[in-house]
Amino acid sequence: MKWIELTSTEELESLANQNTYAIIFKHSTRCPVSNMAKKNFEFESPLIPEGIPVYFLDLIKYRALSNEIANKWQVKHESPQILLIKGDQCFYHESHNNIEVAKVVVRMTN
After folding, report:
1. What CATH number should be reported for the domain holding residue 38?
2. Predicted TM-score of the model (pTM)
3. What is the pLDDT of residues 62-83, one digit of tens each?
């Protein structure tokens, strides 16, 4: 799995205009729970279907983008957090120790 770093509002707009699934992982580099969730996510990442982009948001560097994500996809900000989006809809989100790749994949296939 290759992370695609989110760094701009334009990237969020581009995601919102696409009609394909994408995953956003919001991560706090200062939080031990977030570090563990990221490691677990990376370990489980082979479950993600090929071609599904996985975006990474560093909350320390880009907190304003996290707020925009919360507004755009109507999901309360949490950290760590995962979102499964398709266009302007969020089909699944979870945070903290409840982040599991298998749950995200199930939502894509339903």
Report:
1. 3.40.30.10
2. 0.94
3. 999 999 999 999 999 889 999 9
